[in-house]
Design brief:
- By secondary structure, the protein is an alpha/beta fold.
- It is globular.
- The chain has helices at residues 14-28, 53-61, 90-97, 126-129, 132-157; strands at 2-8, 35-41, 84-87, 107-110.
- The chain contains 5 helices and 4 strands.
- It has a single domain (2-154), classed as Rossmann fold, CATH 3.40.50.
- Helix content is 39%, strand content 14%.
- Helix 3 links the parallel strand 3 and strand 4 (107-110).
- The protein binds 4-nitrophenyl phosphate.
């Protein structure tokens, strides 16, 4: 089992979109039983809320389910419970690191770090830009590459 936690600021726009898209990709590969997926926000404003309407609309457009996704805040215990903790921007990474010591095996990275040829290394916050289409494209590219890395890991380690 490999576990992935997507993190943004509010957990209503970018990280729930990443959770839904990654869950969809994993399902299409038949790897549901091998990869645990979750998302969280560094802020507490939207705890218990469903994804933002902009995220819900774009997921619906591409027939990606957001069923069961509700916002929660990341807690220090999360740091030891995931293999990948994936932030959307630099501020998310800083906030994750402030939560405490991160076990050495845990990979804390930005989603766009997995897209080596991308010049854009942060996923811009659509809560402020309104550009949910742009976020969908970036998150899909990042999630696809992340899944390639995890598939390689699963095949090498017999997980
Ligand atoms: P997200 O966007 O981090 O992509 O979920 C935001 C959502 C809400 C707020 C900020 C960012 N907020 O300040 O409430």
């Amino acid at each position: 089992m490999v576990s992935v936690l997507f993190v943004c600021l509010g957990n209503i726009c970018r990280s729930p979109m990443a959770e839904a898209i990654f869950r969809d990709l994993v399902k299409k590969e038949g790897l549901e039983g091998k990869i645990k997926i979750d998302s969280a926000g560094t802020g507490d404003w939207h705890i218990g809320h469903p994804p933002h309407q902009g995220t819900r609309d774009i997921l619906k457009k591409y027939q990606v389910s957001d069923e069961g996704i509700l916002a929660r805040q990341i807690v220090s215990e999360d740091l030891g419970q995931f293999d990948y903790i994936i932030g959307m921007d630099d501020q998310n990474i800083t906030n994750i690191q402030k939560l405490g010591d991160i076990p050495s095996h845990v990979k804390v990275k930005r989603l766009m770090d997995f897209v080596e040829d991308s010049t854009q290394k942060e996923v811009p916050d659509p809560y402020y830009t309104g550009k949910f289409d742009e976020v969908y494209e970036l998150v899909t590219a990042g999630c696809s590459r992340l899944l390639e890395e995890i598939k390689t890991e699963l095949s090498h380690e017999g997980k």
